[in-house]
Structure formats: C-alpha cells, structure tokens
Fold each of these.
Amino acid sequence: MSTDPTDPSAPRVGVDEWVASHEQRRAYRAGVAGMVERRLERVPSPAFYLAFGIAAAVVPALTSNGYVIDVGLNTLLYMLLALGLNITVGYAGLLDLGYVAFYGFAAYGYAMLASPKFGLHWDTLAVIPLAVLATVILGFLVALPSRRLVGDYLAIVTLFFGELFATVYQNGEHMSFFGHFGAHDVTGGPNGIPNIDQFNVFGARIGALNYTAYYYVALIFFMVLLFAMYLVDRSRTGRAWKSLREDPLAAELMGMPVNRLKLIAFASGAGIAGLAGTIFAAANTAVFASEFDFTSGLLIIVYAMLILGGAGSLGGVILGALVVNVSLEVLRTPGHATWIFYVLIAATLVAKLRPWHALAIVLAGTAAFGFIVHAIVSSAWPRGVHGQAPVGGILGSGLSHWVILPSSPMTIGNVAFIFLVLAVLALTLLKGWWQKLAMIPTLYLAAFVWENRLAVEPSITRLILVGVILIVLMNARPQGLLGTSRVEIV
Amino acid sequence: MNWNLFLTELVAGVSHGAVYALIALGYSMVYGILKLLNFAHGDVYMVGSFIGFGIITVFGGATNLSIPVWALLIVMLLCAMLGGGLLGVMIERFAYRRLRNAPRIAPLITALGVSFFLENAAQLVLGAQYQSYDSFGWKSPIALRHFTLPASTVISYAEVIIIAGTIVLVVALTLFVQRTQLGKAMRATSFDREAAAMMGIDVDNVIVATFFIGSALAGAAGVFNGIEYQQVWPYMGFTAGLYAFIAAVVGGIGNLPGAVLGGLTIGLAQAFSIGYISSTFSDAVVFAILIAVMIVRPSGLLGKAAVSKV
C-alpha cells in the first residue's frame, strides 16, 4: 500500500517479463568481490552442506572443552528442529504453533519406553522408530480437523494443542478419568521422568553424559535428513509444497491434492521434531514438561532461527540455528555480551548510515553527549555515577567515565527501558537529519539501559532479543539471510 | 444433584466467561478488519491488569486508600482502558502496518514476536513474581436483603461487578458499532476493505480505531481479572489470550455477538469441567469443544459460512 514504485524491491504490477527475469536482473558487484560471488553461485549447494558437515565433524577433535560440545549438541538439536519446521512453515506455508509439543511428545515417549519409570528398557533401535512413528501419527491427527480451513485456524488449533500437551504432562502424576481407573502416575508431573536410558544398540551403549557421542549421533541424523530434504526440495512433492505456499487456490486449480500435501507436510515436520526429541531425552537423561511450554521460549527461538536464516532455505536452517543459538549462549556471560552489544551497534551504524560524514557526526555526537551528561550528573547527583559496571576490564573502566551508573539502577533503569523502546519506535518515524540527530540521545539511552538493566539480567535479555529479531526481520527483511525474496504478481 | 456446586460454578463460569468475552471481542474486531490473528492481544490484557495494580498502589492500597472504592474502581478501569488502547495502537502502527499487504504468515509471525517481546519486557520491568491486587472486600460473598441464596453457594461482589461491567461495555460497543459513523465505517471496512477505501473511508483511521477499542476492552478485562483472582504476572496474557482466541473461534471469528457467546461457552465449560471432572482435563474439554466446532460448524456458532470468491 505504501510502497515506493521506484524502489527495486517493490512489487511490479502485472509485468510478467519483469518477474520472469528476476534472477538475471540481479547486478553483480564489480571487481574481485563480484567474481567470487559468481564462482560461489556455480558451486552446487550440497557441496556447502558437505563442507558444513566436515567442519562440524572435526569440532570435537579440536577441543576437549565439554561446554563447547554441549553447545554444539544443542545447536544440532535446534538445527534438526528448524529443519522439520522448515517443511511445515518454509515449504508448505502452514503456521504450526504446536511444533514444540511434538518434540516433547517424542522425548516423553522415549523416556517412558526406556527408563525405570515403567521398568521398560527397550532397545534404542526399536524405540526411536516407534517414537517417531507415533509423533507422525499425532501430527497427522492434530492437522486433520483443520485441513479444510484456512491457515489461521491451524495456527489456533496447534497453539492450543501445544499448551494442552504441556498442561497435561505437567499435571500427569495423578491421571484419572471421571474419577475412575484410579490415579496413575503417567508423566511424573512437575518432577518429569529422570534416569532415562542411554542409547543402546544391540547391547553397545553410549556412556552416561557422553555428549560427544550424542553430538555425532545428532550430526549424522542431521546430515542424512539435510540431503534428504535437498532431494525433496527438488522433487515433485517439494515443488508442490512451494506452489501451495505461494498460492493455495492456484495449486488446487492445477489439480494438486492440497489437503493431502498439507497433511504430509505437517506430519513429516512433526516426525523430524520427534527424532530430535528422542536424542534430547537420551542426552539429557531427564525430561520435564515445563521445557516444552510457551513460556520456555523454545517455540519462538526455533521460529526466530528459521526466519533469520530464511524460511524455505536449507542453508538458512544451518545459518539461522548457528547464529541464534551461539548468540543466546554468548548472552549468558555479561562480559562477552557487552562487547558484542557495542560492536554490533557500531557495525550496524557503519553499514547502514550514509553519507560518511553523517556517520562521523553521529558517533562523535554520541560520545560528546555522553561525556557532557556524565559531567552534569556527576556534579549535580553524585550517587548517579557511583554504581558498578557489569563488566570489568578496559571496556568497563572506559565506560564508567561515559555512561551514568546509578548506585541503585533498578527503577531508573526500568523507566529508561520503556523510554528506550519508545525512542527507537519514534526513530523509525523520523526522516533525514532529524533522524540522525535523534539517534544521538537514543544511542546513549541504549548504552545506559544496557549497562544498568539488560546486561544484569541476561536470562530475560536473551528472550527479549528473540522477540525483537522476529519483529524486526519480518518488517525489514522477511526473506531472512539466505532466503529468496518473494516476487509479487498482482 | 448438588445445586450449590452447580450455582457456584455457573456464576464463576459466567464471570470468567465475561473476561474471555471482552478479550475475544478485540480479537474478533481486529480479525474482522485485517484478517490478522493478533497474538499480542493477550499481552495487552496483561498490561491492563498491571495498570490497574499500579493505580491501586498509587492511591494508597487497601490500608490508606485516599478515594472511595467505587471511584478507585472507575479510575482503574479508565486508566487500564486508555493504556491498553494506546498500546494496541502502537503495536498496530509499528509492527503490523508495514505488513498489511505481505503474505498472510508474515504478520502472524510478527504478532508472535510482539507477544513474546511484551511478556519478557514486562518481566524485566515488573519482575517475574506474582503481584497481588488488594481486595477491598470484593471477594466477600454477596448478601441480599429480600432474597436468600441457597446455603454455601458462593457469589462474590467481584463476580457481580465483572458481569455488570461487561454488560455495560458490550452494550456500549454494540451501540457504537451500530449507531455511529465510525462504527458504520468499521462495518464497511470489515466487509470489504478496498471498496470501503474507494468510498472515501479513511481505512487507516478505522484500523487505528479498531485496535484502540479492542485493546481498551482487553485492558478492562485485565482489571476485572485482577478484581476476581487478585494475581497479576507477566505471563498471564498468554493463557487468557489463548482461551479468548478459542472463544472467538467457537463463536465465529469476526462476529461480535459470537465473541460474547463464545466467551461464555468457554468460561462455563471450563468452570463445569473443573467442578465436575478434574482441573487437569479442563483444557482437554475446551480443546474438544474447539475441535467439535471446527468439524461441525467451521464458521463458528454464530458465524456465517464463508463464501470464498476467486
């Protein structure tokens, strides 16, 4: 509605030729960069996947740091989850908000069949296919009632299904039905199911807490599924899914079995989540229902990965999961997070702010503004600058002469956070020099809020960040990092 | 048949349903105009509840209240409605407006992001713990002069306030939508946005008004919930929003009387299943109702079957 017709990314009305030549019209950069870009484009994408697989396989050999392996395993599980969600959301365009429930369902399934809970210790080769199959059937059943309806209804049914799953499993320690059949402990309730068996194939079992072994298990599953998805992507079904996503009505008129395609997409996404769930249960040796509900943020994190990488792109799945999970891990330690925060802001300014003298003015202005504010506050209200910086080192001591650090930052920091959100929103409404001028106090406010509130509460900050990623990406670059931009034909 | 339990659950269900109905109205209005499921709507309700909590604190709380209780109640409702409405307008302006012509899935994912952002921002600013409304005797059982309720039936002042307040708001909304010019513009826009724009209706204004009114109702619902259950916390909007959503779908999304009927249905179903079956399965009962409605009457109890045009 408000698109500028001269903007190259704006939809062109009714010009089919323009649409058809979308790929050719892309201008390559001049010089070496353009040459490299062109060469890279000729390399088939499986080569990149293989390179990723090899790089990921040597990581455990390079480091003996258990933490790195642990994060790596988590990242691979996220990649598996994003790969499954990519089928449902990325290919078929169905909004599946109960996705995490399938992950939890299979994790609990594995836990029930291979733990002292019910005294069952089945062979892993039997449990994994069984759990995945059960998850596929569950996914099928959940999608069934909403198959004829528009995507919105599917979103509601799946969202509520996800919540229902978490509630039932959370309260499943006294299962009874209309007061009959006694009160059975099925899910362990809030205590979850502990002491889950390790993977155990024909008597060979993985040692307890051997994350390296699970890392390789997850990597192998991921690589196999990644290549399978590459083939699916180019297959009849894959192309049908994508046409369904672009225009369900046109797809139906072309004779595609729309309902069946939707159900297959939904159920296979659920199946991959199920596979990831079994690995998760075995590697962590315990499952809790609260890990799978909405407030844990797992669903939003997987969505953020998929959207950041670019929905519908396999490389995007790898990149998105890697970027999001590594940044969430980095945010756990305020020291690293503070460096990243300032570097990221500076990099964004350098990349986005033109012309160069505007950039120089904003940066110099922010620095000067900070020193002036600091000087005024330290003479007028000495307690305002005597707080403790959340990080030490050069950065911390340098910043303590620039950012105001009140000795009790709680209330003022909270108020400043609200003002920061308002200021950033207002910034998007301003244009030209007014915007650049307004940037100076906003940047300073951001630094103030970061030092006094955000860096102090990393566990909340990471979740806020995930929400912001979704909002900003959807508004600014809906195709993500590696996705192809959509060409709209009106 | 235990009539006491029945009557208690009936009134609890209706007052609970009234809160769902108020939230569901906002969902329904926005969906009717933009065809957007506004997942952040439940969090507007949460913010409204916190505004009410803040007003109680500002006026001194239960121990040294500086104004009469009825005046406090009115100030709470007005502030929560105003704050909720402004928040709703801001969400529309900054998160959804640019995506109005984007593929359907883009605003939905943005709405998820907004919801998650609001919940965690509230957790940062207000703390993760439960806060408690002072009760001012609202929860004490009601006593009537000429009419005696069966013994041990519990109907509190809070429930009466909620039901009466909801009736007033719903009647006001109906009059607004049916009788005023802006209400007429809203109905026209929800019927066909492009045609309405061609007839000279400022669609942007209508959408802003819709978000304001819908979110104001959610803010009022937040205060009502605080009066009845006392507790407020940052994640309260998710669950309540979810039930209200289902209420809107069960009643027929986009249909305002349907939203009220759906809210009452879900509230009653929940109250009776907690009273007669088990609180673990009350969610399952609501889910069963949702699935049943979607299979038997996909357009909802009061919704008209959609005729899709090409």
Amino acid sequence: MIYHYPVLQVIIPLLGAPLCLFIRVPRLVGFFAVLVSSLSFLISCGLRQQVHLYGTIVYELGGWAAPWGIEYRIDQLNSYLLLLVSGISTIVLIAAQTSIKKELPENRHIFFYTSYLLCLTGLLGILATGDAFNVFVFLEISALSSYTMIALGTDRRALTASYQYLVMGTIGATFIIIGVGLMYMMTGTLNMYDLAQRLPEVYKSKTVLCAFGFFIVGVCLKLALFPLHLWLPNAYAFAPSIATAFLAATSTKVAVYLLIRYIFSVFGIDFVTTSLPLHDIFLVLGLIGIFATSISAIYQRNIKRIFAYSSVAQIGYMILGLAIGTELGLTATLLHLFNHALMKGTLFLAIGAVVYRIGSSQLNHFAGLGKKMPLTMAAIVAGGLSLIGVPLTVGFVSKWYLIVALLDKGWWPVAVLVLISSLLAVIYVWRVIEWIYFSQPRIILDDVREAPMSQLIPIWLLVLANLYFGVDTRLTVGVSKLAAQSLFGVTP
Amino acid sequence: MNIIGLYNYWIVVLLMMIGFYIVIAHENLIKKLVGLSIFQTSVFFFYISMGKISGATAPILDEKWQLYSNPLPHVLILTAIVVGIATTALGLSLVVRIQEAYGSIEESEIQVQDTHDELENHLEAYGPGPNFAILNQDLNK
Amino acid sequence: MSFLALTALAIVRLKDLFAVVMLSGLYSLLSASFFLSLDAVDVAFTEASVGAGISTLLFLASLKLVGRYEKKSRYKPALALGIVMVTGALLVYGTLDMPHFGAVDAPIHQHVAPRYINDSMTEIGVPNAVTSVLASYRGFDTLGETLVIFTAGIGVMSLLLVSRQTKDQSKKKVPADMQQQIILRVVAKMMIPLILMFGLYVQFHGDYGPGGGFQAGVIFAAGVILYTMLFGLSSAQRVFKRQILELLTAFGVLLYGGVGVVSMLLGGNFLDYNVLRHDPVHGQHLGILLVELGVGITVASVMILVFFKFTWRTVKHKYNQ
C-alpha cells in the first residue's frame, strides 16, 4: 500500500468529491469531507517520511513508464508542500462545519464541499505530477472549483469577482499551454524530468525563450504577482470565509511552487540567469508589489480586503527571495511559503469566526469585539504580529532569512527597503488592532459570544503552529534548506 | 522556404491575438467569453499544426499506410477542448447570475454599481466624511 | 484559413451578440474542417460537436437571458492593442526557430510519439492511436479532464439553483418555443432516435475509428437537447430526472476512478489496465471500454443538466414578468 501513496494522495479527494453527491445529507457531507482531507493528510505525512528516508519517489500512472505515460514524482520540495496543503485543508474544513452552515443557504452546502474537495484534488495534483500537461489539467480543476466557491459568496460582488478571476485565470492557463506547447515542439516530450534533459540542446533557440516567457507570465497571473494581481482582492473579499481561508493559504502557494519547479527543475537556473534578466524583473516587481499593495492595504475598510492586499505583498517577498538567485534566497522563499500559509490561514479563519458571529467583515464592525470574542481576537493579533515579523512568530523567521540572504548577496539597500516595508505592515495591522480593542462598538454587540469550539480549535491550532515554528525552526528551516539544496543540485 | 514553412504559424498567431484582443478590450461579458474561446481555439490550431506531417494520414493504424501524423497533440487538444467548454459553461452561468444581480452585463455599468455598493457600506460605517465626497464624485462620473 | 481570420475580425466589429455567437459557431465549424485537413479527425469531430454545437447552444440560451445587444461603450483599445501587439510579436519571434510546418524531422516526431505509432497495436491492440494514448498511455489526463467537466457541472448546478417555487410553477406545462412547428417536430421525431443511436455507436466504436466517450456524450446530449427544444422542458424532464442526472455526473467519474482502484487492488499501478484480465491486451480493451463509458456518462449528463439549468432560468424569468 505504501507503494501507492503518491497517487492515493490525489485519488482520495478525487473520488471523494463525486461521492459527496451520493451522500446527499449536508451534515454528513461535511464530516465526510473532513475525513477525506485528513486521510490525504495522513498519507502525505507517510509520503514525507518516505522521501526523507529514501529520496525521490517515482510512480508511473497506468503502469506506463515516462515519458510515454504520466508519472508522479515526489521529492523534497513537493512532499513538503503536499503536507502543507493537505494539512491546512483539513484544519480549515473542521472550521467549515459551522461557518458554512451560517454563510451559505443549505441547498448549496453539498456543492460547496464538493467544490472544495475538487479544489484540493487539483492543488495536490499540480504538486505531485511530473508531467507538464498534466499540470494544466489539474490547474483547471482547481481553478474552476475556486471560481465556483468564490461565486457562492453572498454579496453580489462575489459574482463579478469570480467572473474576473475566471477571465484572468483562463488567460493565464492559456498562456501556460502555449508555453508547454512550445517546449513540447522543441523537445518532443512533456515529462518534466525528460524536458530538463532535452532542453539544454535547444537553449539557444528563440522558441524556447518564448516558451519560457509565456509560461512565466501565465504562472504569474495565477500567483497574482504585481501588477497581475487585480483579480485577487475582490475574490478573497467576497468569497465565503472558508473559501478565502483555504485559497489564501494554499492556492497562490501552489502557483509559486510551479514557478520554482519550472525555473529550477525544468529550465535550469543557468538558462534562466543567462537568457533573460528575470532576476532583475522579479526584484523590481517584487519590491514595487510589496510597497504598492501594502499601501493599498492601509486604505481598505474591509478587513478581508486588508489581508487580501497583504497577501499580494507577501507574494512579493517570496518573489524577492527568488530574485536573489542563491540557495539562501530560495530557502527564504520556501520558508515564507510555509509560514505565510500558516499566518493567512489563522487570520482568515479568525475573520471567518467573526463573520459567523456578527455577519460582517467591515473593519468598523470589529470595534469592541476585543471584549466579546477575546480568543478569536487574540488569534487575529497573533496572525498580525506574525505578518509584521515580530520575533517568536513564524513571520520573523522567514523575514530574518530573507534579510540574511539579501545581505549575503550584498544587496543591503534592498534589505533596508524590506525593513521599511515591514513598517507598512505595522500600520495596517495596528489599524485593525485599534478598531478591535480601542474603539466604541458601532453595532449592537449584546448577544455576540465567543466563536464556537469547532472554530476556535482549528484557529488556535494554527496560532500555536505560528508560535511553535517561530521558536523551533529546525523542522521548517531544515526542510526548506534540503529542498533548496536539492533544487540547486539537480540543475545541470 | 523559410517564409512558407512558418506562414501557417503566423496566421495562427494572428488568430490568437484577435481572440486575446476581444477578451481584454471589450466590455461586454458575453463577448469576452466569445473572445476567450477564439483565443483557446487558436491555441488548438497551433498544437494540431505541429503534429502534422506532410503526406501523412490520420493516426488510425492500418496496414495500408506507413506515415501517420503525431497523435499526441491530438490527445492534448481533445483534453483542452473539454476544458474550454467547461470554462465557457461556468462563465456563462456566472454571466446569467450577474445579469440577474446587476441588470447589466457591461463591465463599466457594473463598476458604477459596485462603487455604489462600496459607498453604501461606507456611509453605514462612517457617516459622510471627506472620503465620502471623493467616492460620490467617482460615482457621478 | 483566411475565412477564419475574416470571421474573427467580424466578431470584433459586430455589436449584435446573436450574430457574434452565430459567427463563433461558424468559426468553430471552420476550425473543425481545418483540423480535418491536418489529419486530426478526432479533434475535428469534437470541435464540431462542442464548438459549433453545444457551446453555441449554451451561448444562445444565455443570450435569451441577458439580451442580445452589446452597448456601445468607451473601451480602451490603445492599451489592449499594445498588450496584444507585444504578445503577438513575442510569439512571432518564437516561431522563427520552429521546425517547419509538416516537416517529418521535427523533434516531436522523433521522441515519445513513435512508440505510440509503432507499438500501441501490440501493447494495447486498438487501431486508433489517439484512443490508446488518450485512454491508456495518458489515461490520467483523461480522468482529470472528466473531473474538469464534473467540476464545471457542479459549478453550474450551484450557481443556477432553481428555487422550489419555480419548480411548482413549472409543473404547469411549459410550452416550448418551437412547439408549434409541426414539420420540425415530425422530422425531429425521426431524427432523435438516430442521433442517440449514433451517439452510442460513437461511444463503442472509438477504438477503431474516430470517436470515443467524449464525442459520444456530446452527441447524446445534443439529441436530448433537441428533444427539449421541441417538446418542452417538462416532458424532457420526465425522462431525465434532475436528481438522476446529478448522480450520473458523479457516477461517470467514479466509474473511471473505480477502474483505476480495481487495477490497483489487482496488483497493478493506478489505471494499469493490463492486470484487469489475464491477457494484457484484453485487459486494455476492457479498461478502455469502461473508462470511455465513464467519460461518456459524465459528459452527457453534465451537458444535459447544464442546458436544463439554463432553460429553467428562462422559465423563471417568464413567470416573474
């Protein structure tokens, strides 16, 4: 059975999703989804262990050897992310049980859970696969299901947000298949490993360069790199809170993974650095992105939008780590990938709990909640501090590594800019804290109580993870380093 | 020779760009979807073109033939067509819902209404302040 | 090719969405014939049934709900043109080093693909190489594709939910738009069984000629949709219950995945059909038959369901007015 782990990981949610329609009872479907997701999570733990012991695992789907068939290729990097995605998904689903009941009309519950599991399948599929075209198929599964989840939001703006995302997402996906097609044309293969072997022969060709360009632009649309991020804030703000928590914590991370995978394992870092000024582009876009979106975050009135803009800014940090182009830089990116998923998971789940109680995510409605929902608010504060990068939180660890990597490269002005940008985070997080603790309530809060246990437990699990990994960095830093080393080692 | 060998691809590029242009330049939500499907279909041309071998036949194996076109791009495009129709169906149902919620499927008109929503949220939350005037101006534009 | 370009340009200019949709149907039909000339028979078949058939129908159904004219609006062609020009220029630049159109010695014909052509007959025993690659070598992609359709089905179902109230109203007979057309009805009565038969033929004949689960599903759905248009939604729904359709969409995916799970239990890898029977080629046959059936079921039921959902909305609007 252990032998089948790589595929079971994806197959379980894949078959779980259609089974939801057969169960038909909304409550049961909720439990079932938790079960499915936690099974996936357990398997990914096992998988992680295996990779740790024996190195890269290859699984041939259909029994056909790659490059004729499709293979799953699990290595240091994606086993780590599989763990992250399936873990977060399980935690979020636990909180979903109550939150969804409140936010969506009952006849949509089943559809929501089905879409959620489909989205999980898509994300896990992208992470696990070693085939360039298979990526596109699973990308579309996750994308279509996220459009659905977002459109289920109750505000009518959820519909336009979802539509916008659909158009942008499809353009991105189409760019990606143009890129894949061009690569295929020059090499005759779709398998990533095989591509890496055969691409060096044709490095000089304009077609490969063009393939790379299209691929990068397509992925950057998906990961909402500034200035291609316009679809993101509305999508996050108007989606059901659970969908926001899940997507914010995982989906852009998976896109960042794709970027890393292609830069390092397919094209090879040598090609990337010699053929295009990609690092400079990433550096500039990353920095402008951090500043522009952090400033936008300060001016938002909806707390979901504040943190949605901040998500785009955090992606800027990850891209900055990539732009450094050293092993240390990549480690910082991977660390931030993991840590940011924890922070945003916490924040959006906590906001979800507030929406559950007061039915709004307007910032001013949070006034006075510090007394009414102390535990939830404390979680928001913890997440916010982590976002700023205060010591003892995960945010500190990844910022620290980023700055070390920047100084190591000798880019001290950039390091200074990163520090300044943290001040912007202080401002928008402080605005939230000010409303929560130091303002008079704007709405009647008499019958508002602390969030239910089923939400508090997942929220606090994430908060504790935030703190634990902020202090004990052996695991996360160790794994990120290993992954970064293997990526730099693999390249020819 | 060079020009003839690539002419086919250039036309495909032209078609792709027409589709792409419709998507980003037009404001009507239905038309955007039409553009999107043209854009995608043109990408399909590109894949299928590269699978073609001059003088070959369709890849249905038979003793009569020796040379077949490459079946792999065909398979990929079959998959992509399905993905395309799936996206279109979902997009259209979104458009229908948007029409019901906003009474319009023109991007600019929807934006005006969105600003209006924002304004109401703001009014309810903060009362008329300096920002209110700015928002109101946006609305009246 | 030039027709294609002309059609596309006309779509850019026209304001009448009805014409735009019709032209895009034409565009699909033209592209199907273009695919045919490039030896991609399966793709041509699919494009004709999907692009020119189902997708045009869906567009028309939604036009009925949203109105047919595009408003003249201040759009920002300069920026868009700029972006498009840059992208196009990049692509043309990329074509410069491409292997020429139709060349035998292009890399894609040297690597990977030859095995499909040379060995698929002995390894899988199905003459249509596209089917062997689709259902077996790259069977997992096809499972993903089925899941995409299912996802879209879920999306449309949840977005266009029909309230109970509308359902009650529709118990009264809903007249179809074309119910008065006697000639059409008579012709259709003869046609529909043929279409459905043809769908089944395509489903099970995909191993030998062009066709397969996906095309069959679409054709089957087209037959049902034709019936709906002529005889009204309520009579169509008597045959195809909504709940059963919903379950069928899921069932197709489960059938496909189930074949994979069974092959895993029998000791092979996921979707390894060789182990399904004692003889690998027979196993492949059985496996391909079943997964194609899975694809067909999901595609047909999702398409029918989506069309029903759109039509329900129209009914609802009629009653609301």
